């Protein structure tokens, strides 16, 4: 292994129309310490969080910022405190928003937030999964405290707003797997089909008021709501549709104050999900992300859930990264977009 590696990064936050918004770089290969794995990256996925992070100015002057929060690859070296993996292992992970990302040929990642790559999945199929799977799993089973016992979920329902996206596609499959009635929002024929193919029982058109549509299916309220798009715009609707003692979780930051008082009479819960919290704050349950990815890997290999990969672009470069970010920012993505190979 040489001391330098290929990477895609930038020195300043710039619009995609600027050719310097992403640059092909040659940077030093990092050295492992502690719980670090050095992973040879084979495939990466681009998420909405990447497009948001691209607009944040790098904090260290004259040092490039390297994004990327989804990857699959092969372990090349392990740190002195590692016990979960060995060189040669195929892995997948979402990484840590506070460290250099996966848009590089080699990346350091804490083994406690890494899982073994599903054996039945290609590197591209695996790279599409970690961030969305961790987000969906934590949202459903940690934040919303949904039971994994199908009998306990009998008669319960969940509304997933933006069900055809990366997180929505996984959340739908997981919620269906534990016995919930899954109600998703979509509008275009292709997104409606995608959503139904992943297990949604009822599809509502998000361009029309949701509650009147839901009543046509015999539902006045839902047990759980997972909001994956525009918390502000859906707040009134969610407060109205959630059942007494129900729970709402959102992954989308609000721009205006939310009137939590609207939930008081129902004793309803509102909670955020941010997949990077555990790594960012080194929480005591950091290892749980390794456990979640292990579960996701097993469910994929068993055919219980399927990868949400919808498009693959070759190779990994500044040009293809700009192409990927444009697609994500268009708001027309279905499933997940992956870049593969340098």
Automatic annotation (TrEMBL):
<dbReference type="InterPro" id="IPR052585">
    <property type="entry name" value="Lipid_raft_assoc_Zn_ADH"/>
</dbReference>
<dbReference type="InterPro" id="IPR036291">
    <property type="entry name" value="NAD(P)-bd_dom_sf"/>
</dbReference>
<keyword id="KW-0862">Zinc</keyword>
<dbReference type="InterPro" id="IPR014182">
    <property type="entry name" value="ADH_Zn_typ-1"/>
</dbReference>
<dbReference type="InterPro" id="IPR002364">
    <property type="entry name" value="Quin_OxRdtase/zeta-crystal_CS"/>
</dbReference>
<keyword id="KW-0479">Metal-binding</keyword>
<dbReference type="InterPro" id="IPR020843">
    <property type="entry name" value="ER"/>
</dbReference>
<feature type="domain" description="Enoyl reductase (ER)">
    <location>
        <begin position="17"/>
        <end position="339"/>
    </location>
</feature>
<keyword id="KW-0560">Oxidoreductase</keyword>
<dbReference type="Pfam" id="PF13602">
    <property type="entry name" value="ADH_zinc_N_2"/>
</dbReference>
<dbReference type="Pfam" id="PF08240">
    <property type="entry name" value="ADH_N"/>
</dbReference>
<protein>
    <recommendedName>
        <fullName>Zinc-type alcohol dehydrogenase-like protein</fullName>
    </recommendedName>
</protein>
<dbReference type="InterPro" id="IPR013154">
    <property type="entry name" value="ADH-like_N"/>
</dbReference>
<comment type="similarity">
    <text>Belongs to the zinc-containing alcohol dehydrogenase family. Quinone oxidoreductase subfamily.</text>
</comment>
<dbReference type="InterPro" id="IPR011032">
    <property type="entry name" value="GroES-like_sf"/>
</dbReference>
């Amino acid at each position: 292994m040489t001391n330098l590696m290929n990477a895609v990064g930038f020195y300043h936050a710039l619009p995609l129309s600027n050719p310097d918004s992403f640059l092909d770089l040659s940077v030093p290969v990092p050295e492992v310490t502690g719980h670090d794995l050095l992973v040879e990256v084979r495939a990466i996925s681009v998420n909405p969080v990447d497009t948001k992070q691209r607009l944040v100015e790098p904090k260290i002057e004259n040092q490039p910022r390297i994004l990327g929060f989804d990857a699959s690859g092969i372990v090349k070296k392990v740190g002195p405190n590692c016990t979960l993996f060995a060189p040669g292992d195929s892995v997948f992970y979402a990484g840590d928003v506070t460290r250099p990302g996966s848009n590089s040929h080699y990346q350091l990642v804490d083994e406690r937030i890494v899982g073994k790559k599903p054996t039945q999945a290609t590197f591209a199929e695996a790279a599409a999964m970690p961030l969305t799977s961790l987000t969906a799993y934590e949202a459903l089973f940690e934040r919303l405290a949904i039971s994994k016992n199908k009998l306990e979920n009998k008669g319960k329902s969940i509304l997933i707003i933006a069900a055809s996206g990366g997180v929505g596609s996984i959340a739908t499959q997981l919620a269906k797997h534990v016995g919930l009635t899954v109600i998703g929002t979509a509008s275009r024929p292709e997104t409606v089909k995608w959503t139904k193919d992943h297990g949604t029982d009822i599809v509502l058109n998000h361009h029309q008021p949701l509650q009147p549509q839901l009543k046509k299916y015999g539902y006045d309220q839902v047990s759980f709501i997972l909001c994956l798009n525009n918390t502000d715009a859906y707040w009134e609707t969610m407060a109205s549709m959630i059942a007494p003692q129900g729970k709402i979780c959102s992954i989308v930051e609000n721009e205006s104050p939310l009137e939590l008082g609207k939930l008081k009479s129902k004793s309803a819960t509102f909670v955020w999900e941010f997949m990077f919290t555990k790594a960012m704050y080194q929480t005591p349950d950091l290892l749980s992300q390794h456990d979640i990815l292990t579960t996701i890997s097993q469910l994929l290999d068993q055919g219980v859930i399927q990868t949400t990969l919808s498009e693959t672009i070759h190779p990994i470069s500044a040009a293809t990264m700009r192409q990927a970010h444009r697609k994500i920012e268009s708001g027309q993505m279905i499933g997940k977009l992956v870049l593969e190979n340098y």
